[in-house]
């Protein structure tokens, strides 16, 4: 092994420096400022603010609804991505473009539209309400809004990965006697699972911070349907910038822990996957050639 | 590169030239729904000032939530004047030293050129016979209001109901809080803002009564037709003020004190008052109030200063964390 590796493209040092500066200005600086501001409060005070009855209820609603929305999208988004990659059908490009719309739509518009649709006299609400299902102005409405907002994350993360799985792999599995279910569980799913986790994590992170769409459909009742970003706005309304940053920092810490957990899970599955290497790699190793 | 620099310079120069065309430029930082009022008022002032001082004034508007606006001014938005819908927002600027401490005395009528009041909007025929605050708190009635803690509109409703409860026989703070508890139980949701509450009530047909500004009722009539609803004036309600102030630091820096002062004073002129009335805001001018009496029936009102000892005190007692609103929502 040579001590020095030569890369095809030069400029690693420059690119790394650029990356670090860019990330520092864009992400670390504002976040650092926020944490610095919050540190004007003592740790105890931050905890007091975070553990208040209203804050706790809001954290539960925010993280619970975000988790549900991300989970729903992980399931249905997978189906959408699969259909978009694997099946040709008329209008496919149109449907493909539809997926990105939640990205482009101002979130307040999304919230108002959903509230109008699912209100008691809305197109959909009028059929759901007699069944006892209330969507608008309940926590369920929050889940609906977040599911809408975060759909593209799962679909767009999965599409390229599914494209990379060649149909021959499925045919090979079938020719070796695997049932359709086995093909999916043992061959396809392990290949797309890391991407699915990434999509889930992105959707979840986006949902936690969402404000614009949610406040129009949530109902915003204290202890029932208040989200944490609303409490932050409420603190700002009182000119309580410190209290607002305290809540924001706690929210950030919780999100970071959850995202870290997802990343670790992803790393673990990716590594586990490495142990079951494709046949040709195993064969190559047996011949004494290292990749 | 030099070509690039030249074009940048050209752009900057044209910006400066654009601004220089007017003798002075004023920026008015205002609350959200004030758009219409000032859209009509600004040309009136420009004409007036041209005739009086021979200067052309360029007027710029910045609109947003009242609290957000003053925070922007405190953070460096160079507004010459602020025209808000809550006194405590201007108090905030006074605390920061941007506005004179005695701003409320610098103009007549506590520096509020026009007023409005909180009214009930009920469905046509008033099927639930909602006449006063006690009817809104009755079991089985649904009330639509914006969030009392996060919006000025919702806070006005909250304080109106509180003041009414205080004035009932044997009324005191404890009884008022109990009444508010009953009242808020009738809210199936708290809307994100005033317009959101209107949409929820009128378009989504939720609730039996919407409580909002009197001026909003006329907006609803324009949007949804007069036949859809009725306006009910409760036996006591808040006179909501729209205070204005000069941003001392900015006008001194920009040298626009004279124009800014004249701009605000002109709000009290006949033209300014009539413009307010035409935008369904109650003018201070008694003659005009009479002229537009069909819009503005007599109503018994209180001011926040009278009942709560000022906007800041009212805010601290009721809407700060741990205030009366939070106490109502503490589960025991």
Core attributes:
heterodimer; A: 291 residues; mainly alpha; MetI-like fold; B: 332 residues; D-Maltodextrin-Binding Protein, domain 2; 4-stranded mixed beta sheet; 12 strands; 49% helix
Structure overview:
The complex is a heterodimer of chains A (291) and B (332). With 291 residues, chain A is mostly helical. Chain A is 76% helix and 0% strand. Chain A is globular and about 65 Å long. The mean pLDDT of chain A is 87. The longest helix of chain B has 19 residues, at 2-20. Chain B starts with a helix and ends with a helix. Chain B contains 17 helices and 12 strands. Chain B is globular. Chain B is of the alpha/beta class and 332 residues long. Chain B has 2 domains: 2-113 and 242-268, D-Maltodextrin-Binding Protein, domain 2; 115-240 and 300-328, D-Maltodextrin-Binding Protein, domain 2, CATH 3.40.190.10. The chains are: A mainly alpha (291), B alpha/beta (332). Chains A and B meet through α6, α11 and α12 of A and β6 and α9 of B.
Question: How would you summarize this macromolecular structure in one to three sentences?
Answer:
The complex is a heterodimer of chains A (291) and B (332). Chain A is mostly helical and 291 residues long. Chain A has helices at residues 12-38, 43-50, 53-86, 92-99, 101-104, 107-118, 125-128, 139-164, 167-175, 180-209, 214-218, 228-237, 241-275, 279-286.
